[in-house]
């Protein structure tokens, strides 16, 4: 038994030889953190009353696979997952969202939606997050990241988009908070923004038909407000029917 254990230890040490002790320790800590967070979230999903449930256990399991892959395969937040959720796509300008930040970003969206009685919560979409990262990584813009002019994915899905910029590092929840603050600029009866004010970011957040979101954070040194948070949404909000702008909910 001791010989078998020794052989296993040698094999593990050989496989990990290309990584520093600090990298290995960080990966292990990330995986443990994700496992603990997963237990907490699964208990919430299983025990909350139906009307209050935000994520079910199956959804959490799927997100957990995604997050565990990030923790095990992503050095220093420089990669995002591709559409398969297996291989990695280089994103040198990405500033990694932690698993907790992803959850907080979702909760910020869904809290705003619940406030206007939207019962269908947004869920995280890995493919959309990767699509957002592939564009945001280009750092196109001057004061703020420019909107992607081609928000159509390879699978045919068209997306809505919100962008938040800051001179300092911010998380996704802070970005959502700034968009939701536009609520005071929006008049539901006229379905319009106050004169000279913005409200389109808010109406996208609370667009009832939107069910998926994926976000990315990048650091663009060439842009004045260098930290950017970009969220893409499916289906897109702020759309019109027969040239008449639809209400968000």
UniProtKB/TrEMBL annotation:
Domain of life: Eukaryota
Gene3D superfamilies the record matches: CAP
The UniProt record lists the keyword Transcription: no
GO cellular component: extracellular region
Segments forming a coiled coil: none
Pfam families with a match to the protein in the record: CAP
Signal sequence annotation: 1-15
Span of domain SCP: 100-241
InterPro entries tied to this protein: Allrgn_V5/Tpx1_CS (IPR018244), CAP_dom (IPR014044), CAP_sf (IPR035940), CRISP-related (IPR001283)
Keywords linked to the UniProt accession: Signal
Annotated protein name in UniProt: Pathogenesis-related protein
Species assigned in the record: Acrasis kona
């Amino acid at each position: 038994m001791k010989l078998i254990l020794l052989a296993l230890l040698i094999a593990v040490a050989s496989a990990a030889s290309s990584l520093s002790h600090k990298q290995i320790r960080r990966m292990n800590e990330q995986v443990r953190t994700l496992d603990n967070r997963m237990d907490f979230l699964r208990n919430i999903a299983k025990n909350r009353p139906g009307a209050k449930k935000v994520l079910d256990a199956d959804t959490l399991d799927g997100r957990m696979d995604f997050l565990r892959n990030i923790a095990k395969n992503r050095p220093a937040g420089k990669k995002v997952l591709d559409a398969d959720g297996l291989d990695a796509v280089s994103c040198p300008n990405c500033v990694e969202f932690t698993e907790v930040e992803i959850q907080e970003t979702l909760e910020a969206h869904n809290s705003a939606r619940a406030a206007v009685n939207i019962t269908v919560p947004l869920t995280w979409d890995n493919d959309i997050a990767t699509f957002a990262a592939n564009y945001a990584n280009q750092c196109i813009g001057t004061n703020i990241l420019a909107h992607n002019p081609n928000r159509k994915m390879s699978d045919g899905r068209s997306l809505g988009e919100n962008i938040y910029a800051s001179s300092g590092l911010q998380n996704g929840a802070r970005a959502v908070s700034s968009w939701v603050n536009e609520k005071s600029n929006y008049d539901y009866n006229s379905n319009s923004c106050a004169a000279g004010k913005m409200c389109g970011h808010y109406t996208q957040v609370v667009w009832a038909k939107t069910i998926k979101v994926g976000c990315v954070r990048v650091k663009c040194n060439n842009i004045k407000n260098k930290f950017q948070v970009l969220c893409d949404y499916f289906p897109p909000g702020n759309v019109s029917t027969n040239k008449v702008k639809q209400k968000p909910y």
